Structures are given as C-alpha cells and as structure tokens.
Amino acid sequence: MQFEICLSPKRDALWVYLGTCLLDFLKSMIKKTLKYFWSIRGQFVKYFAVGVSGVVLDITSLILLKEVFGISPVVAVIINQAFLIAYVFFLNKYWSFKNKELPHKQIIKFLTLSLFNYIFSVIAMYIFSTQMEFNYILVRILTIVVMVSWNFFLYKYWVYRDT
Question: What gap in Å lies between CA 96 and CA 43, rounded to an integer?
Fold first, then answer.
C-alpha cells in the first residue's frame, strides 16, 4: 500500500512557519541557558575548587587509612566521609555560595544529600572494589565524578537557596 501526502500551499506555509517558530524558540532557549550558565560560572569555579581540594583530601585520607593503617577500603570510606562532609559544607556555604543564613535548616538538607552520597559511595566501593575487585582508588574517583554532576545544582537550588 502506498501513501501519498498531499499538502496544500497553505499547509506547506503553516509547516514552514511552525518549523521556523520552533527553531527560533530552541535558539532562544539555548541562548538563555548558555547566558545563565555563564552568569553562575564564578560560583561553579569556587564549587569546583572546593570539590578538587575535597577529592585530594578524600583520596589522600583513603590511601593513608588503607595503606598505612591497614583499614579495609569500605571502612576507610566510612571514616573519611565524616570529615569531608563538614569541610565541604562550610566551604561551600560561606565561600562558593556566599550564604549568610543560619545553617540549621541547611545542615539538615546538606546532611540528607550527604547521606545519599555516602550510601552511594559505600555501596559502590563494596560492589566494585570488594566484590568485583576493581582498584579502590579508581572506584572512589569514579563515584566522586558521578556525585559532582548532581551536587552543584542541589547545593545551589536546594541546600543553600536563599529563603
């Protein structure tokens, strides 16, 4: 069976018009999105700097706990996360996002997100390092990369949002 599409000149013009409107809308949205990301680049750079320093502390303490003290990678992640949570919270609150509000509600939100990240980290370390025998440092770096992807926006729009 053969289908033929016969469009009248009016319909052709309508489709061209709708296509042009859609393209204009998409261009506008892309431009607004890029402009927005450009406007928050300073916060992101600071967030990224806190993150990089946190990763250095994280990996260093993980290696120290495992290699020097002989602690298993899973227990080492449990220990080093407790210290890194406080470090990241205060640096991001006061430096990255310049938030001056009382921290009691923010701490609850931050700890909720940290708990999720913590559980994700421990489970990933258990599965990929202990069960599948991947290198524990590689596992840690990859879990950090995954968490960074969602943390910036959750910090900005949920944890440190001005009320």
Answer: 5
